[in-house]
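Anyone? Bumping this.
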Amino acid sequence: MAVRRADHTRASTMQWIPYLFLLPAFILLFTFRIAPALAGFREALYTHNLSAARRSFVGWGNFAHIFRDPIFWKSLRITLVFSLVTNPLQTALALALAVLANQRVRGISIFRSVYLLPVVISINVTSTIWGLLLNKDSGMINGILIQFGLPRQPFLLSPDQALWTIIGIISWVGVPYWMMFFLAGLQGIPQALFEAAAIDGANAWQSFRYITLPLLRRIIAFVLISDTVVNLFLFAPVWILTRGGPQLSTNLLMYDAYRRGFVWGDMGGSAAMMMILLVIAAITVAVEFLLFRSREG
Amino acid sequence: MNEKRLTRRDFLKVSTGATVAAVLAACAPPTPAPAAKPAEKAPAAAPQKVTTINHLSIWSDDVFAETIALFEEMNPDLKVKNEALSWNAFFEQIQVRLAAGSAEPDTLAVDVPLTAPYGYRGWLLPLDDVFTEEEKADWLESSLKAGTYEGHLISAPVSTSTQLLFYNRNAFEKAGIEPPGEDERWTWEQLADAAQKLTFDEDGDGTPEMWGFIWEQVIRIYQLQPMPMSLGGVPIGPDGLTVRGYIDTDPWIEAFTYYRKAFNEWKFAPQGDVGWPSDTLFRPGKLAMEVAGPWNIKQNIDANLDFEWGVSRHPYFDGGTIVTPTGSWHIGANANTKKIDAATRWVRFVSTVPGAEKWWRTGSHDFPAQKSLLEKIKTDPQFEEWPWKAERIAADEATVNPQPRPVTPGYLEYEEILGDTFSDIRNGADVKESLNTAVERIEAEMDKYRK
Amino acid sequence: MAESLAVDVAERYTRRGKTRISRATVQRVIVYFLLTLISVLVIVPLMWAFAASFTPNDEVFRYVFPFSWRALFPVDFTVEAYRNLFFEEGFTRPIANTLILGFSTVILSGVTSALAGFAFARFDFRGKDVLFGLVLLTFMIPGEVTMIPLYIVVSRLALVNTWTALIVPGLANSLVIFLFRQFFIEIPQDLIDAARVDGASWLKVFASIVLPMSKPVLITASLLLFLGQWNSFFWPLLVAPDPKLRVVQVAVSYAYEEHKTLWNQLLAGSVVAALVPILLVLPFQRYYVSGLVGSGLKE
């Protein structure tokens, strides 16, 4: 409102000044975020690799080709299973960890700093270290298993274990990451609410169920939705650790799209697959959104 | 509402191509990167002007040093800037850059089976007029043919290859086995038998200190194709697209059952990631035998190994045909290069004498694809005494029924999917099932090349 | 769950008078136990990586299989891996490159984003809601989706393997614009009005009044921008494959591909790549967390 007042003092210059402030940032945003996203849609309708013509319109051809591919359907199933397991798992564990990290005990800030470590280290470094830890012949995890008299596990080399192993590795990053959001939310809840509940005889579980959860509803929704998007577009661990194998068991769609475009040179097919992923992400987000909406009402 | 929509549309308009170009151009560093567009416009009339050729390869600058030095000495108006990438990044970068129609690199190393895919996509400059008939006649016929796509020479032969059985003589002595002679050829059955005896796990921790055998390029079709072919198998149909009924037949199943057993049952070959086994296992003395390329000869000599080593011929299956791998690096020019003259001069230099000889002797040490150079291996006294004599053995082995890899526009997909498949089989997956999956996957990808 | 259960149990077994103390003690023991357990899960992998990077390559797995506590300490201490990394593999170059990339992003993107954030926070103008909506929207577009079209543009302009291609696309950061806007909106109007009445231009108000009092958000934005570039991988991999322009994350992944069996060196590279963000974030933890979390909690 106060701005309006200023507005009157120099009405003529005021009109373009804010746009001037916005201009550099918006040129960047349009050029490198929005325009390429729109171009991606267009790219999906073209092909680069059919003989002679360098680039030609194929309409839905790229999509038809993908849908005919039996491997696509297998990868889609893997991607969905991966998402359906990872998102609730990470959200629930992150919330639990946040409750733990919100305890008012001595030295808690040291623990919180420790939990920050996986968050700031890049996913490449994390994948590299875990790749060595999970090595079948000489990895530490198998060393520990053997110590306890358990059989050594192939982990990333087994088609039955590889996907779960990747889920584990990314949760090592994801759980503390989303924990920070919950922790901030928890710290925003007035302590008086809990004290009042305690006086009314509520136990720890009850105050969590009836105070914490409802107040964190918006953050839970945010975390769930963001986590969905992040995981659908997960790439680095697969690229570094399994390259989609063994036996295609970790062939997530994002990696498949990468391989199509950057290994096989089928840019149109790759863009098409990316669009399919984007649609899946949009649908999932919409469903999650509605779910939280309806419960609220 | 109406207002808002207008604003948005206006912005979208602004955001298209023009801004993209403007922003990127505006931010270009003051000394523009290699793209020397204007310089090349004027035809070779101005000799004082130096043109820089951007060459993309997998070899570091020091490998290239002498070859480039000789070229620049002979062509004072040209300079070569080599961009060396790691193996995986190399193939990916070619895909991405050439598919996007980039003018760089000007020239590139071409793995010979990629001639067809690159030719199909129109990525390489036809080189028919670059070479004299005499120069063309100096190449091995098989190499010239492999560099030709639809009647045009598009990748000029630089090297070719073969494979030998390298062995660690000390390991054989320890196991009390007589190693195969340099003109002897073991069967795969003989090899499996010996390899098990050559695998030592003396501390009993389940991980041998000495492994019996491994294939140098352990999951690549280049290395493995001779096995099914030795049993009468064929890698692809005559149309260069169909694999159903070829890679799922008995010779393939039998060959890869052997392969599977090597890692899982006989356990003379290591599973898991071993990197480049010549570097990580053979030269450190942890591997008794490997089927590997002749480029290892010089590397073994230079490494001053603390054990005696020897070579023998490429194995075959008992009762089957003798088949050896072939093909190696060619060189090509980007169809979109803005420096056609310079690029083709460099291509010609590397693929013919004397450039090719320099490259063979001081560069990659890959086997030359020029008959005159192969002749030198037979006559040059340098190759009479062991260990350099191994080169002469390799030169002879290169003439024993070499079989090229499939010629198909979908070679990248073919190779990568088979690589996945071999990797799975190596880790214990069912052979038949894996090959069937490979058929499904390759057929689905080849679909886009059918007209 | 486990916690409340244990508390119930504790309650049942103690007499009423003593309950308060015992409950608190039991609860605290459980809390410390869980806190420590998770810390172990976080720290042990990192400790091994750290210790192994100071170990001769042949010994890297020696105490790991079967596992002994020695695995977590460099018992056969050597700096061989680091020496090779820096003097033979030339790891200094990727570090220098990434520092240049990071600092230029902090400055350039910091300025453009702060200006935009200021406009959104302090001005009323036509299309403000739409434009701000666009900022939030781009925040939701995963970078991966735009990678291919962006690459095509860059390569057509012959910018592959240039600093321009490496730096400029990373300057567009809607999260940082958002953070600035959230911060600037809290600045008291009186301060700005006073300066305006004195005849200061908006740019001057921004530079001499707003920025000096924005230290927290400047720290947060710089951290996010710098770490974003320090950890960036996919884009540099695509657009700057030339080893002379190689950045840290790409160098680490190449090391993984090329020297699969030079573990100590691989881990030394990883330790260096991890140490920089850790050392930067720990002292500024509060700012870092508030920046990340800010996107999810406000509006």
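Late reply, but here is one note on the structure posted above: Chain B touches chain C at residues 3-4, 7-8, 11, 20-21, 23-25, 27-29, 33-35, 37, 83-89, 93, 96-97, 100-104, 205, 273-275, 280 (CB under 8 Å).
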